[in-house]
Design goal:
The complex is a heterotrimer.
Chain A: H1 5-12, E1 23-36, E2 39-52, E3 56-60, H2 67-74, E4 83-90, E5 99-100, H3 106-115, E6 117-120, H4 134-144, H5 149-162, H6 167-171, H7 180-191, E7 198-202, H8 210-226, E8 230-235, H9 238-242, E9 247-252, E10 255-261, H10 262-267, H11 272-279, H12 319-323, E11 329-332, E12 335-337, H13 342-348, H14 359-363, E13 375-387, E14 401-413, E15 417-421, H15 428-435, E16 443-448, E17 451-452, H16 453-458, H17 467-473, E18 474-477, H18 491-502, H19 508-521, H20 527-531, H21 540-552, E19 558-562, H22 570-587, E20 590-595, H23 598-608, E21 611-616, E22 619-625, H24 626-631, H25 636-644, H26 685-689, E23 695-697, E24 700-702
Chain B: H1 22-43, H2 45-67, E1 88-91, E2 94-97, H3 110-146, H4 148-163, H5 166-177, H6 182-190, H7 194-209, H8 212-219, H9 224-261, H10 271-280, H11 290-318, H12 320-326
Helix pairs in contact in B: 1-2, 2-3, 2-11, 3-4, 3-6, 3-7, 3-9, 4-7, 6-9, 7-9, 8-9, 9-10, 9-11, 10-11
Chain C: H1 3-28, H2 33-43, H3 55-70, H4 78-90, E1 96-97, E2 102-103, H5 104-108, H6 112-139, H7 144-158, H8 161-175, H9 195-232, H10 235-242, H11 247-260, H12 263-284, H13 290-300, H14 303-331
The chains are: A alpha/beta, B mainly alpha, C mainly alpha.
Organism (chain A): Natronoglomus mannanivorans
Membrane topology (chain A): Peripheral membrane protein
Subcellular location (chain A): Cell membrane
C-alpha cells in the first residue's frame, strides 16, 4: 500500500499534541439511566469528554463500567427503555453548524448516523442478518442514504482489500461462511462505506484471537491515517490500545476516572484505579512478581458508593473520599484524574511498567535446570481426527477428516505446568482432551504411569492400573464458567459428587467439613452461605473456583484447565492464576493450561517453572521453558504470537506485522510442507515441500529448519514476495 | 496410587462445620419442593388460573359425579333450553334448575352428561399423557446420551412413528382392538405422540451432554445412569412436563375425534359421543340444538385452555432462579444486574 | 454417508415399514380383512355362491378372490404372500374395494385432487394469516392487544379443528344457509371450465378450508410471535436501524424473513396432516375426498379400501417430510454448513 508516505511522516510527530478548537465531539454531563424495579439504574453518570479531530481515543474499563453506554450515547443509540440526557455536540469538519446529537429527530438521526459517525459492535456475527448476503448489507446501506452506488461499491472493494479480504468472495458470502476475524473486518468496511468522520468501536476485537486482534489493530492504525478518521476505541484491554491510541480515558463505575495522553497514562497513571488495572494486567515484559490483584468487585449501578466511587476498593482512600466525589484535577496540561490524592497514588500503588525492566533478563534466567524424572502422562505420536463438514454439492463423496492433532508427542511430569498456546482452531483443546483421556486418538499411545489409557479401558479390570483409577486421576476445568456447574444443583451438591467417587466411605458430616474447608480456602466465605447457593447466584470467578474445587476433590494428578480464565474479567485473571499456582504447590497437582494468550501462559508457566508449547494447525511447533519461548523464540510462529501479545511499554515501538496472511488456513486442507509457510515471513521454497521435524536446541524443541544452521533451507529461494494464487489475504505489504 | 497422604487432609480448619440435622433437612426439603412451587404457581397469572381450571375438572371428575345423578333418556322433554325455570327440582332445600344446560334431542340432561363424561376423559388424558411422556423421555434421553447403535435404532423407530399419520393408524388400531377401558384408550392414543417428544428431547440431550458440567461428571467416572438422573433429567424436566401437558391435550382431541367418528366403542358418557349424537341426530337442524353441541365443546376447550396456560407458566416452577428467590430457607442474594 | 443419501434411504425404509405393518394388520388383525373376507365368502356375499360347487373349487375361488381384494393368497407360504403383497402395492395395485366393487386405486385416485385442493388452499390461508397475526402481536409485545390476542389464540388452539368444522357447518350451513352443507360441486351447471361451476366448487370448499386452516392457525401464530419477538431483540436488527435501513425493509427482510424460515419445514409436514385430518373433516362436510372414502370404508368394513387410504396417506406424508428436509437447505442459507466445526 503505497501513497501513505505523507501521513506516515505526519504520524511520526507526537500525536497527543493537538491544537485548540479542534474538537469534533463534545460530550457534556452525559447520563444514561434505566428504570428498574429496584430503582433508577444509572449506567452512565455525568460524563464530560471531548474527542479531538483525527485522534484515536481509547476508552478503557472493565465489564460493567458503563463504557458501552458511552459509546451508544455518542450516536444517541441507547436501547429502549434507557434514557440519555446531557448533551453530545458534533462539529462537522466542513465548518457547518455544530449538531446537537441528542436533539435530532428520527430522520435527522438516520442521516447523521453512518454519514457522520458510525459504530462497530463487539459481536460481528450477530451484527449481520444471517439470511442475507454481505453484498446486500452494503447495498442496502448505500441505498438507505441515497449515496452514489457505483462510487460506494468501489469504495467497498477498496476497503475490503485494504483489510486483506478477497472482496468478491466476501461480498458473495453469507455471514456464517466467514470466520470471526473476517466478519469483524467486513463490519469495519461496512461502517466506513459512507466515509464517516468518526468511527466508534465497541470492543471490536474482544471475541477474537490475539493474533487477529493485533492484526486488526495494525490495519485500523493505517485506515485511521489514510481516511482521516477520528477513532473512539472502547475496550477492556488496556495494553491492546496502548500503542494505537493517542489519548486514553479510563472508566470506573459509570464515570470517567482519568483521561490523558496514552503514553502518560501508561507510564505515569494518576488514578489509583488505573494504576491497579495496569498492575493487574499480565504482560510479557513485566516481572511476574510485581503483578497485583484488585480486591473487591465493581459497584452496582442502582446503589453506587457515595463520594468517590472507587473508595471502597482504593488502598489510599481517606474519610473525605467517602464523603464527597472528587472533581477532575490536572495532573499535567492534558492529563486529568478524578482523585483527591493523585499525587500520592504513584508511591502507594506501584506497577512494573515505566520502570526499567532490564532486570528480567538476568533474574528470570533459570534455564531448564529441572529434573523431571518419570512422566505421569506421556503422549507418543498421537493423531486425532474429526469428521469434517459436508456441503450440499458433494453428495457421494467420502467425508473429509480434519486432523485436529497430528503426530504429537508430549510428556507431563509430576508437579508440572504445561501451557498450550495457539490460535483458535489449532487443536489445543483437542490435544488437551486427548492428554486426559477424553478423546481417543486414531493412532499413537497415551500412557499414564506406564499404562496405556485406552488399553486399560478396553481390557476393563485386567490392566495394571484400572481405567476408573486413571479416570479419576485426570480432571478438567472448562472454559465457560456459565456451563461448568449444573444450574439445577446447589454448590454443595456439585461438590459432594467428586467426594462420593474419590472417597466413598466418607461420612456425610466429614464430606461437608471438607467441602467447607475448601470453599473457605479459595476465599469463598462464609462457606455455609456459598455451599447453599445455586450457580446463578455466583459470579463467573466464583463458579470457576467451585469447578476448580470439584476437580481437586477427586485428588487428581493432572488437571486440564481449558481457557479457564479467559472468560473472566482482566482483574480477576491474575487472582485465579494465583489460586491455581497455590493449589498446584499444595496438592502436588500438574496442570495442562490451555490459552490463546501468551502472557497468561507465561505468567503461570514461569511461576511454576513449567513449559510452554506452541501449537499451529494440529502440531506442536515449539516447546520449551518460559525463558526460551518468551525471550528467545525460535519458530517464526512463536515470534508472531509474541508480537501479537500486547505489551504496555510504550518504548517498545510497535513493529510491523511478522505474518504474511491474517487468516488461518482451512484445517481440513492444511498447507503442504511446513504448515506455517503460507503466513511465515521467512518461508522459502523448501518449506512448501518438506515438512520439518522437531529439532532440539538447548532444551527446547522447534519444528523449523531455521533452527538448524546447516540445513538446506538456507540455500532455498525465498517465497515471501511471491504472489501466490490462492492467497487473497497476503499481508506482506503491511506498513 | 490410592490415598497416599491425601492432600485434602492438609486443609484442616479449626471451627467445625455444624452438621445439618435431619429435621432441618426436612424443613428445607418441604420448603423447596412444596411451599416454594405453590408460591410460585400462585404468583404467576397463568399458572394460577391454569391450576384452578385443572383443579375444577378434577373436582368435577371425583366429587361432581357423586352430586349429580347420571342422565337418563326422556327424563325431560327434548330440547329444553338452558336455565329454564319451568323445570326445577330441590337440592338440599334450594330450588334449582333441573336441566341447567337444557336437554338434548332424547330428553337427556346435558349438564349431567357433561359432568359424567369427565372421569373417563381425565383417565384417558392421564394414561395417554403419562405414557407419551414416559416413553418419549426414555427413548429421547437414552438415544441422546448413549449415541452409537442405540441412538440409531431408537431414532429410526421414532422417525418411522412420526412418518406414520396418527389418525389413520389409530382408526385402524381402534377398529382392530375395540378398547373399552378409558385407560386402555389413552394408552393406545399415546402410541402416536411419543415419537415427537423423543425426537425433540434427543436433540436437547445432545446439546446438554456437551455442556461442561456433564463432561465433568463423566470425567469423575460417573456412569450413564447417575449422569442422566442428576445432570440431564432435572434440566429437561420442564420440557418433559410441558410436553406431557401438550400430549394430554392432544389425547383429548384425538379421543373426542375418534368417538365422534364412531370407531371407538361407546361405553360411558363421553364428550366425543355427545358431539357424535348431536351431529347425527338432528342437533344441527335448529338453534335449539346449540346447547347440545356447545356443552361438550366448551368442556373440551376450557380444559385445553387451562392446561395450556398452566404449561406456559410451568417453566418458572423449575427455574432455579425463580425458586431461589422464593425459598425462605435460602438467603436472597442475586448478582447485580449486569447492564451491558 | 452423505446426509441426503441417508435421508432418502430413511424415507424408503419408512415406506417399507408401513407396508409391512399394513401387511401384518391385514393378515392377522382379529376380525380384520382376512377374517372379514372369509366370513363374507362363507355367507356367500362375495364370490361364487350356491350349492353344487365342490369344496376344491370353492377354495380355489376363495384364493382367487383374496388375490383380487387383498393382493395375496392366504394359503400360499408366508413369504410368498408377503412378496406378492408388497410387489402389487409397489406397482400401484392396491386391491379391490368390497363396497364399490372397483379396484381401490380407481376409487381413490379421482378423490385425491379434491383433498389436495382443499388442503393446499387451507395451508396457504393459514400460513399467511398466522404470519400476519403473529408478527403483529410481536410488534405490540406486552400491550393489551398482545395479551388479548394471545389469550384468544390459546383458546382457539384448545378447540379441535373438527369441532370448528361442526360449528361452522351448524352456523353458516344449516342455520344461516349461506353455504352448502354437503357435496363438492353443484349438479346443475355442466362440469367444465365455466364460472358458475367453479364458483360452485369454491362455495362448497369454503367452510372445509376455513376449518382446516384453523387447525394449525393458533399454534402457528403463537410460534410466529415467539420467533418474531426473538428476532426483534437481535443485534443485527439494531445494527440495521443504526445503518439507517428503512423500517419497511427491516420488517420484510430482517424480521419476517428470519421468523418465517424456521416455519418452512413445519408447513410441509402439514401436507401430511391434511390427508390425515381429512378423514374427520370430509366426513363432517360429506365432501368426497380421500378422507371421506376412508370414513366410508370404516363404516362399511371395506378393509381393502381402508388399507389403501392408509397407505396413500402414509406415503404422502413420508414424501412431504423428505421434501421438507431436503429442500430446507435451499431455503435457509444458514443450514448449509451442517454441523459446526467448533469441536476443536
Amino acid at each position: 500500500m503505497s501513497g501513505t508516505t505523507e501521513e506516515n511522516v505526519d504520524s511520526e510527530s507526537p500525536r497527543s499534541v493537538r491544537s485548540e478548537g479542534n474538537t469534533i465531539l463534545e460530550v457534556r454531563d452525559a447520563t444514561v439511566s434505566f428504570e428498574m424495579e429496584r430503582g433508577e439504574s444509572r449506567v452512565l453518570n455525568g460524563v464530560d469528554l471531548s474527542v479531538e479531530r483525527d485522534e484515536v481515543l481509547g476508552i478503557v474499563g472493565e465489564s460493567g463500567s458503563g463504557k458501552s453506554m458511552l459509546a451508544n450515547a455518542l450516536l444517541d443509540a441507547v436501547v429502549d427503555p434507557g434514557k440519555t440526557s446531557g448533551s453530545v455536540r458534533y462539529f462537522p469538519p466542513d465548518g457547518r453548524d455544530p449538531i446537537d446529537v441528542l436533539e435530532l429527530n428520527d430522520d435527522e438521526l438516520r442521516t447523521f448516523r453512518w454519514e457522520e459517525i458510525s459504530i462497530v459492535f463487539q459481536g460481528a456475527m450477530s451484527s449481520f442478518n444471517p439470511t442475507m448476503k454481505i453484498r446486500d448489507h452494503f447495498a442496502e446501506t448505500i441505498d438507505a442514504h441515497d449515496a452514489d452506488p457505483e462510487e460506494c461499491i468501489e469504495r467497498a472493494y477498496d476497503l475490503l482489500s485494504e483489510l486483506y479480504l478477497d472482496a468478491d468472495r466476501v461480498l458473495d458470502s453469507y455471514p456464517h461462511e466467514l470466520s470471526g476475524g473476517m466478519q469483524q473486518r467486513t463490519l469495519i468496511a461496512l461502517s466506513l462505506i459512507l466515509e464517516p468522520d468518526v468511527l466508534v468501536m465497541d470492543e471490536p476485537t474482544a471475541a477474537l484471537d490475539l493474533l487477529m486482534q493485533r492484526s486488526i489493530i495494525s490495519l485500523l492504525d493505517r485506515l485511521q491515517r489514510e481516511y482521516d478518521l477520528t477513532l473512539v476505541f472502547i475496550t477492556h484491554d488496556l495494553p491492546l490500545v496502548a500503542h494505537l491510541a493517542d489519548r486514553i480515558a479510563v472508566m470506573y463505575a459509570f464515570e470517567l476516572a482519568e483521561i490523558g495522553p496514552a503514553e502518560e497514562i501508561i507510564t505515569n497513571a494518576a488514578h489509583p484505579y488505573t494504576r491497579m488495572l495496569l498492575g493487574s494486567t499480565p504482560n510479557l515484559d513485566a516481572p511476574v512478581d510485581e503483578m497485583r490483584v484488585i480486591e473487591g468487585s465493581s459497584p452496582d449501578p442502582v446503589a453506587p458508593p457515595t463520594g468517590c466511587r472507587y473508595h471502597p476498593r482504593c488502598p489510599i482512600s481517606r474519610d473525605i473520599c467517602a464523603e464527597s466525589s472528587p472533581e477532575f484535577e490536572d495532573v499535567s496540561a492534558e492529563h486529568q484524574a478524578a482523585c483527591f490524592f493523585h499525587e500520592e497514588a504513584s508511591d502507594a500503588v506501584t506497577y512494573p511498567i515505566g520502570e526499567d525492566n532490564d532486570a528480567i533478563e538476568t533474574e528470570g534466567s533459570s534455564t531448564s535446570s529441572r529434573d523431571y524424572g518419570e512422566p505421569i502422562l506421556s503422549l507418543d505420536d498421537v493423531t486425532v481426527e474429526f469428521e469434517g463438514d459436508q456441503s450440499i454439492l458433494d453428495l457421494f463423496d467420502e467425508p473429509e477428516y480434519v486432523r485436529a492433532v497430528d503426530d504429537v508427542s508430549l510428556d507431563v511430569h509430576e508437579d508440572d505446568v504445561v501451557a498450550l498456546v495457539g490460535e483458535s482452531g489449532c487443536g489445543k483443546t483437542t490435544l488437551g482432551k486427548t492428554i486426559i483421556g477424553v478423546h481417543r486418538p486414531e493412532s499413537g499411545n497415551v500412557t499414564y504411569r506406564g499404562q496405556d489409557i485406552w488399553e486399560a479401558r478396553d481390557s476393563h479390570r485386567e490392566a495394571e492400573i484400572s481405567f476408573s483409577e486413571i479416570r479419576g486421576a485426570l480432571q478438567m476445568i472448562h472454559q465457560d464458567p456459565g456451563s461448568s456447574l449444573n444450574p439445577n444443583k446447589r454448590v454443595i451438591h456439585s461438590l459432594r459428587k467428586p467426594l462420593k467417587k474419590s472417597q466413598p466411605d466418607l461420612e456425610r458430616v466429614e464430606q461437608e467439613r471438607r467441602i467447607m474447608a475448601m470453599l473457605e480456602y479459595v476465599g469463598m466465605s462464609p462457606p455455609e452461605d456459598y455451599a447453599n447457593r445455586y450457580p446463578h447466584q455466583l459470579s463467573g470467578g466464583e463458579k470457576q473456583r467451585v469447578a476448580l474445587i470439584r476437580a481437586l476433590l477427586m485428588n487428581p494428578d493432572v488437571i486440564l484447565a481449558d481457557e479457564a480464565i479467559s472468560a473472566l474479567d482482566v482483574s480477576l485473571r491474575v487472582e485465579m492464576m494465583e489460586l491455581l499456582l497455590d493449589l498446584q504447590g499444595r496438592f502436588n497437582t500438574s496442570f495442562v493450561f490451555i490459552s490463546h494468550d501468551l502472557s497468561n501462559a507465561r505468567y503461570l508457566a514461569e511461576k511454576a517453572d513449567g513449559r510452554i508449547a506452541v501449537m499451529y494447525l494440529g502440531e506442536i511447533v515449539e516447546i520449551g521453558t518460559v525463558e526460551q519461548i518468551i525471550h528467545d523464540p525460535q519458530h517464526p510462529y512463536t515470534q508472531a504470537l509474541r508480537w501479537a501479545t500486547p505489551d504496555l511499554n510504550p518504548r517498545n515501538e510497535s513493529e510491523e506485522s511478522p505474518i504474511r496472511a491474517i487468516d488461518i488456513p482451512d484445517p481440513k486442507d492444511p498447507p503442504s510442507g511446513c504448515r506455517f509457510h503460507t503466513r511465515c515471513p521467512e518461508a522459502r521454497e523448501i518449506c512448501r515441500q518438506v515438512h520439518p521435524t522437531n529439532i532440539s536446541t538447548n532444551g527446547s524443541e522447534v519444528a523449523c529448519f531455521r533452527a538448524d544452521p546447516d540445513h538446506d533451507y538456507w540455500d532455498s529461494p525465498s517465497i515471501v514476495n511471491e504472489e501466490s494464487d490462492d492467497d487473497e489475504t497476503s499481508m506482506s505489504t503491511l506498513d | 496410587m490410592s490415598n497416599q497422604n491425601n492432600p485434602l487432609e492438609l486443609l484442616e480448619t479449626t471451627d467445625d462445620v455444624e452438621p445439618t440435622t435431619r429435621s432441618e433437612r426436612w424443613r428445607v426439603w418441604i420448603d423447596l419442593w412444596i411451599l416454594t412451587p405453590l408460591q410460585i404457581m400462585w404468583k404467576d397469572r397463568r399458572t394460577r388460573y391454569g391450576s384452578l381450571i385443572i383443579l375444577l375438572y378434577f373436582m368435577v371428575g371425583t366429587v361432581g359425579v357423586r352430586l349429580v345423578s347420571p342422565a337418563t333418556q326422556n327424563e325431560g322433554p327434548a330440547y329444553v333450553q338452558p336455565f329454564d325455570f319451568e323445570y326445577t327440582h330441590m337440592v338440599y332445600g334450594y330450588e334449582v334448575w333441573q336441566f341447567p344446560l337444557g336437554t338434548n334431542g332424547f330428553g337427556e340432561d346435558i349438564f349431567a352428561q357433561t359432568i359424567h363424561a369427565t372421569p373417563a376423559m381425565l383417565q384417558m388424558m392421564l394414561a395417554g399423557g403419562v405414557f407419551t411422556a414416559f416413553v418419549g423421555a426414555v427413548v429421547g434421553i437414552v438415544a441422546g446420551y448413549k449415541r452409537g447403535t442405540t441412538e440409531r435404532i431408537l431414532m429410526t423407530a421414532a422417525d418411522i412413528q412420526i412418518a406414520i399419520p396418527g389418525l389413520p393408524l389409530l382408526i385402524v388400531l381402534a377398529m382392530a382392538l375395540q378398547p373399552r377401558s378409558p385407560i386402555v384408550v389413552g394408552l393406545i392414543l399415546g402410541i402416536t405422540s411419543w415419537a415427537g417428544l423423543a425426537r425433540a428431547l434427543h436433540s436437547q440431550v445432545l446439546a446438554l451432554r456437551s455442556e461442561s458440567y456433564v463432561e465433568a461428571s463423566r470425567l469423575m467416572g460417573f456412569g450413564s445412569f447417575p449422569i442422566m438422573r442428576d445432570d440431564l433429567i432435572p434440566n429437561i424436566m420442564p420440557f418433559i412436563m410441558i410436553n406431557f401437558m401438550n400430549a394430554a391435550i392432544g389425547i383429548i382431541h384425538l379421543s373426542v375425534g375418534l368417538y365422534f367418528l364412531g370407531v371407538l366403542p361407546f361405553t360411558t358418557d363421553n364428550w366425543g359421543v355427545m358431539i357424535n349424537f348431536a351431529y347425527n341426530h338432528g342437533a344441527l337442524l335448529s338453534w335449539a340444538g346449540l346447547p347440545w353441541l356447545l356443552a361438550p365443546i366448551f368442556a373440551i376447550s376450557l380444559l385445553g385452555y387451562g392446561i395450556t396456560i398452566f404449561s406456559q407458566g410451568m417453566d418458572r416452577l423449575f427455574n432455579p432462579r425463580v425458586r431461589a428467590r422464593h425459598a425462605t430457607t435460602m438467603d436472597d442474594s442475586d448478582e447485580p444486574d449486569p447492564m451491558q | 454417508m452423505n446426509y441426503y443419501v441417508k435421508r432418502v434411504l430413511q424415507s424408503l425404509f419408512t415406506i417399507w415399514a408401513v407396508l409391512t405393518i399394513t401387511f401384518v394388520l391385514i393378515r392377522w388383525m382379529p376380525g380384520g380383512p382376512l377374517d372379514y373376507l372369509m366370513a363374507q365368502f362363507v355367507q356367500g356375499n362375495l364370490g361364487p355362491s350356491g350349492t353344487g360347487v365342490d369344496t376344491q373349487e370353492r377354495i380355489a375361488a376363495f384364493e382367487r378372490m383374496a388375490e383380487v381384494y387383498i393382493n395375496f393368497d392366504p394359503t400360499a407360504p408366508l413369504y410368498v404372500q408377503y412378496f406378492e403383497y408388497v410387489g402389487d402395492v409397489l406397482t400401484g395395485n392396491l386391491g379391490r374395494s368390497i363396497w364399490y366393487q372397483q379396484p381401490v386405486e380407481e376409487v381413490l385416485f379421482p378423490a385425491i385432487p379434491w383433498t389436495v385442493f382443499i388442503g393446499a388452499v387451507a395451508i396457504f390461508i393459514s400460513f399467511i394469516s398466522r404470519v400476519i397475526v403473529g408478527a403483529a402481536l410481536a410488534y405490540k409485545e406486552g400491550s393489551k392487544l398482545d395479551i388479548g390476542g394471545t389469550t384468544l389464540l390459546i383458546w382457539g388452539h384448545s378447540i379441535p379443528f373438527y369441532v370448528v368444522a361442526i360449528l361452522l357447518l351448524y352456523t353458516f350451513g344449516y342455520q344461516f344457509g349461506w353455504f352448502p352443507v354437503s357435496g363438492r360441486y353443484n349438479p346443475d351447471p355442466p362440469a367444465g371450465l365455466n364460472w358458475p361451476f367453479i364458483a360452485g366448487i369454491l362455495h362448497h370448499a369454503a367452510l372445509p378450508m376455513v376449518a382446516l386452516a384453523w387447525a394449525s392457525f393458533g399454534a402457528g401464530a403463537i410460534a410466529m410471535r415467539a420467533n418474531a419477538i426473538q428476532i426483534l431483540g437481535e443485534d443485527y436488527l439494531r445494527a440495521a436501524k443504526l445503518r439507517g435501513i428503512t423500517s419497511k425493509r427491516i420488517t420484510l427482510l430482517y424480521v419476517a424473513r428470519n421468523a418465517i424460515l424456521p416455519m418452512y419445514t413445519q408447513m410441509l409436514i402439514q401436507v401430511g396432516f391434511i390427508f390425515s385430518g381429512s378423514i374427520i373433516l370430509e366426513m363432517v362436510f360429506e365432501y368426497r375426498g380421500v378422507g371421506w372414502y376412508m370414513f366410508q370404508a370404516i363404516q362399511n368394513n371395506d378393509y381393502p379400501l381402508m388399507m389403501g387410504c392408509f397407505l396413500l396417506i402414509t406415503v404422502t406424508i413420508a414424501i412431504a417430510m423428505l421434501v421438507a428436509d431436503l429442500t430446507y437447505g435451499l431455503v435457509d442459507p444458514r443450514v448449509r454448513r451442517g454441523e459446526s466445526s467448533e469441536s476443536f
